[in-house]
C-alpha cells in the first residue's frame, strides 16, 4: 500500500492495525483530540475519526514485529473496557514496566515519524534517507513568501571554513555587487540544493511571518518574558558542516532541535556589557573573539532538545560525519530570539518612570521670570533622560530585559518575580541619584547640536506614552531638535540656575517616584508595541499560503 504524510507518498510494506486512543471520561474511556495523539504515531499513515466522534481512531503501520501491535491493542482494550476504579487496581510494577516499554517504543517510532517526509524508496522497496528535500522545501517557501526573496534578508546560504574560521557565502557574487540587495530567482532556488550537497547551510529568516504555528509559539514565548516580539530563524545544515562562524547575538536565543543532531560549543566568558538590538556588532565581535575561548562547554542537541544561549555569549555549532553505519547526520533546527527592544530594557522602564513622574507633578512657576524657570524645569527633565541614557551605556543592569510585563505565573513564583522587579527598580533609582551628572548630560546635547543631530533620537518612542494630541503641562514630553538648538544657549547663559534646577528635579524624582505608578503606563506601551507587531505579523501571514 502507499502511505502519505504531508503530501509526500512512499511505499509501506506493513501490516495495518487500528488503535483507539482516548481521554478519561466518566465511563473510563480515554478521549484525546487527534492533534494531541502522539504515542500512536507509529509509522503513521493516516487518521480517521469514528462516526460518533467520541474517540480518535488511527490506522498504524507496523513493520515485521507483531508483538508491539498485540501489546498496544491489549492495553487499549483494557483501558476502554475498565472504569477508573478497576484501572487503579493494576499492580504498580506492571504499569511501570509497560510504560517503560511504551517509552522505548515511542522513541523508536518517533524517529521514523520525523523522517517520514525525508524517505524515498529505491526500486527494491527499501527506505533510505535523503536528508531533507531542500529543493522542494525552498520551492514551497518561495511560494509562501511571494516574490521577491531577498538574499541576506530572507535567506542565507553559507558555511564556515574551519581552518580559516571564516564564513563563505554560496552566493558571494551577489554580496560583492553594488546593488543594495539581491533578489532570488528560480535559478537561485535550484542552486540551493547543489549548495546543500556541497556543505552549505540554508538559513531562512522570519519564520514567524510564514507559518501560523510558528507565529503562535513566538507570541507565547514573547508573553512569557514580557517582550513584544520573538524572531524565529530556521537552519538546515548538511552532515560534517558548520554554518555560521563563532559569534554572539544581540538577543537571547532558544535553540530547538527538530531533526538530526548538532554539536554546540558555548564559550563561558561573556561580554563586559550586554549587546543591544541595532548596535553594530562587527567591531565588538572581532575585539572579543579571542578572549572568549578560555573555557567552553559542549552540548549535543538531539531531536526535541532545547538550548538557551544568553545574548553576548559566543557560540558555534556543527554537524558530525554520521554514525558508524554510515547514515547521514544532517540537522534542522529553529532559533527563537527574544528581541529586547530599547523601551523594554530596564533603562526604558526608567525613562517611562521619569516621564510618568514629570506628567504627574506640577512644575514650579514664578511670575517675574516665568519663561526662564519654565524652560529650566523642562530642560532639567530632558537632561535627566540623557543622563539615564549615559548610565545605560555603562551599566549592564540598565540593559537587562524588564520582566514587569511578563505573563503571570503561579502565585508563589509571581510574588517572587514581582519582588525581584521592585528590587531592581530600587537599584536603578539609586544609580540615577548617585551617578547622574549635569555637566555630562549637557555636553551630550552640545555635541549633538554641533553635529546637527537630535540629542533625543534614542528615546523618541516615549511619545507613545501620550494620547494623540495631548501634552503634559502644556508641553510635549520632550523638546524637538529645533527647540533644543534654539534654547541651548539660554541654558549655558544660566548654567548655575540650570544645574540647580537639574539637581532639584533629580532629587525629587528619585524620592517621589513609585514603582506601582509606572507599571500600568509601561504595560500600556508594551500593548501598543504588541498590537503593532501582531498587525504586521497577521498581514504577512495572510500573504502566505499556509494553514
UniProtKB/TrEMBL annotation:
Cofactor: Fe(2+)
GO molecular function annotation: histone H3K36 demethylase activity; histone H3K4 demethylase activity; iron ion binding
Keywords attached to this entry: Dioxygenase, Iron, Metal-binding, Nucleus, Oxidoreductase, Transcription, Transcription regulation
Subcellular location: Nucleus
Catalytic activity, EC: 1.14.11.-
Domain of life: Eukaryota
Enzyme class: oxidoreductase
GO cellular component, one term: nucleolus
PROSITE patterns, A to Z: JMJC
Comment on bound cofactor: Binds 1 Fe(2+) ion per subunit.
Keyword Metal-binding applies: yes
Principal subcellular localisation of the protein: nucleus
Functional note: Oxygenase that can act as both a histone lysine demethylase and a ribosomal histidine hydroxylase.
PANTHER family: BIFUNCTIONAL LYSINE-SPECIFIC DEMETHYLASE AND HISTIDYL-HYDROXYLASE (PTHR13096:SF9), MINA53 MYC INDUCED NUCLEAR ANTIGEN (PTHR13096)
Family the UniProt entry places it in: Belongs to the ROX family.
Name of protein: Bifunctional lysine-specific demethylase and histidyl-hydroxylase
